[in-house]
Design a protein that fits this description.
By secondary structure, the protein is α+β, with helices and mostly antiparallel strands. 23% of the residues lie in helices and 29% in strands.
Length: 78
């Protein structure tokens, strides 16, 4: 299983509507696929930063069974 965690802001817009979801692991599963499965695409998907097991990871990062993936979005302002 993969544990997927999202900020409240992302969870509100995600398909699952949950801040934490357990996702069935399958070989070849990537961060990008998790983002897409939650309904994020285009500019929304590009604004998401993924943290896998505590380290920033590129969207093409291949996941392993037992990984924890956190999806974060940067908010800029001034």
């Amino acid at each position: 299983m993969i544990t997927l965690k999202m900020t409240a802001l992302l969870a509100k817009r995600a398909r699952s509507k949950a801040q934490e979801v357990e996702v069935e692991f399958r070989p070849g599963l990537s961060v990008e696929q998790l983002i897409a499965a939650e309904g994020f695409e285009g500019a929304d998907a590009e604004a998401i930063t993924a943290v896998v097991n505590g380290e920033t990871a590129p969207v093409g990062h291949a996941l392993s069974d037992g990984d924890t993936v956190e999806l974060l979005v940067g908010i800029a302002g001034g």
